[in-house]
Amino acid sequence: MSSEQPRGMRHALTWGILYSVLLISLVTPLMVLTFWFLSIPAVILYVKTNRVLFWGTITASVLIGAGFAGGAAAQILMLALFSLIPAIVIGNSYRRLHSARVVLTRGTVAFISMFLAVLVIAASLGFELNPSIDATVRESIEILPEAVRQTLAAEEIRSLVQLTQMLVPLYIFGTSFFMAAVTHAIGRRVLNRLGETLAGLKPIRQWRLPRAFVWYYLIVLFVDLLTPVKNDSFFSTVIMNVVPIFMFVFAVQGIAFLFFIADAKRWGRWIPWLRIALILLVPYLFFSAFSLLGVIDTAFPLRERMRKH
Predict the structure, then answer these.
(1) Percentage of the chain surpassing pLDDT 90?
(2) Which has fewest Cβ within 10 Å: 141, 243, 266, 271?
């Protein structure tokens, strides 16, 4: 027996058990935390074991998780499938030594695909998304203090429900990107510790968007200005979801520019992180400011001029 086989078995046992534990946790209150890490054991199994051992370990882990879940076995099976496909996509990218950007892109697309597949399956079983969102929003409002509820008119509540329904694509994209980022950030580090050599993202100070993104953003903003406010058409929904994505992308670019300045001016490393904390604490004020900074950094050669001086 070669030395690779015992190592493969150890990986299968270790990460198979962890995958089972994560699956079982999905029927407990811990789900709000463990759900985000569900694909990581499967990614590591895909990279560190052969196909036979991978599928055998995954099958055993899922069956153990479903067995412990009891009446929620069907939920466990669906969530296992949800996490498994993106894990295979990300793991395959690692095996092919793709760049971190490609891994994140493919992982995000895979998670988006799985979210859409879940919605299609749920719809075929009689689940209706919009009424569910309506009920969830109204239940959330009922939790608010009575003084706050009295300030909300019926029309305002209907507008909030409609806005939430229209922003579902944005929620799916944001959640998918976050899950892909978490899976890559943790999975890559674990695999590198296990002997792999996987590329990470460039230092944040080196992140740059193509200048064409500025033109795309301006076109979207111009179309948004021409779109009626009270319009629930498909086109309006697309614009409403695309604008926040562009704002987020340029806000990240703005943060990257701050890290570039901190490195060029030899500021303390805590200064850019303080700016990020401000965004998290007062997002409505600082998010737009950082987004604008990102647009300026992308549109004009500020970094080149700073290097000259």
Answers:
(1) 34
(2) 266
